[in-house]
Amino acid sequence: MLVWDDGLKIRGNGLYRDLYLDSRQPRPLSFVSHAHSDHLGLHEQTIATPETSALAEYRIGLQRVIQLTYYQDFPIEDAVLELRPAGHVIGSAMMHYRGDGGSLLYTGDFKLRPCLTTICADPRPADFLCMECTYGQPFFKFPDAKLVAEEMVERVRAAMRENRQPIVLGYTLGKAQEITKILIDAGFNVTLHGAVFNMHCLYEKHGTALGAVRKYVWADFHGERQVDLKERGVLVAPPYVARTPFVTSFEKPLTIMMTGWAMLKGANYRYGVDHVLPLSDHADFDELMELIDRVQPKKIFTHHGPRSFAEILRAKGFDAQPAHPDPQLSLFE
Fold first, then answer.
1. N or C, where is the chain less crowded by C-beta within 10 Å?
2. How far is CA 39 from the centre of its chain?
3. Overall pTM > 0.85
4. 84 is in which domain, residue-wise?
């Protein structure tokens, strides 16, 4: 059912077309699980949720989109598709496929923890599971998200007391909106980097209320007409600005990166920030195992993560293999 052909696809039957999964190459037909750039491509036809297609249109443009809402059966060729919430970012979806060869759940990126700014994940049992496993190593066990949020808030408060500009960094789509929600709920004013502000507006347009924010303007933060630190509040920005004048122009900013990679030693040096806290919109190792328990698949394909995760699963008695075959290893088969 699931094959690798310079990308993941579900093979069509006879006259039916192949259905690619999050292909970055142009395809006749592809499912797009969410609108992060590493899952997007320009296809003749794209299957996505309305929110994902709107975000993808903003980012790269799409040619023809088949928009599906969650929990809607959609006949396609000789099969039936159903999209389920993935708990990753707004509009993110798992795809449940039912055909002659059995059923398949393809996750895309996901998390099972409670969600602040998107619908929580709701996987469905299937014969085959193709799962993202970004954090597929046992040491990736994230602390309670509420505790991480509390630490971020306390560090921001400390920066304000010391008259330092707090700057919190997180991915433009998904993480930045969660950060914004936490900060506003804690009573801070929030100013958004332009790229984050654009995504904020799209979230609001699609029914996710995040709160009032202001868009970053240089004069509000620098020069004679800058506004008070408390009024302009916390800056929320994408990670790539950490070593740019957006950050370095401040005399002594307090920079915080929010990412699951905070679990790695020396992450603050890697990102060039003061603090790195483990807030992620991906599943940690325990959630990966929980997904398998909830789906109860006969066979597992691992994707978007360490190849060793499949080895860990096999050691636990599962029939598992990487979805992307390794041509070097095939020399020894």
1. C
2. 10
3. yes
4. 2-139+282-332
